[in-house]
């Protein structure tokens, strides 16, 4: 018989994987309140990118796919096999257009009822989402991300390395640089490696937040050292 379209099927049609709109939403599937056009998604992998590359054959691709294609001896479109050469145009206009599209939180299926601009979701996850959890690297408990800093201040798990303020700042700078390098590396690797890099980026962010807590509470650390002596 004729197949009817269920509400669940309709919801799925508006779900897109995104990249370039913040670390906490990077390569995650986001539910949009409206369907996006073909020109807003990568013709090759289906991701919604912040930056697109228009090919001579009029297909639109993301930077990650383009970098993968450029590794071949001859760069061709993966759909129609047209030789691409250097005839391609990079545009950032899509970031502004897609960034203001209204979406649901990435944790909508868990119960978060937040809706807002795509460009604001990363900040929502960092600062206000009650359904965005991260495992504490000290005790292993699953903690709401926005409460992670306060949790670390009182966590009874294995203590992190106590650093002098100047050492902590240096390590923070190293972590920021490493995070930037990871993000740059993710644009030229396979999807499997990009997923692994995404996890590493999240772990670096967690360590960075711990170091900030240690830096803020260095007076408490000094007192703790004195008690242990």
From TrEMBL:
InterPro entries: APOBEC/CMP_deaminase_Zn-bd, Znf_RING/FYVE/PHD, Znf_RING_CS. SUPFAM superfamilies: TRAF domain-like. The keyword Zinc applies. GO terms for molecular function: hydrolase activity; zinc ion binding. Keywords: Metal-binding, Zinc, Zinc-finger. This is Putative regulation of interferon-beta production ovary overexpressed.
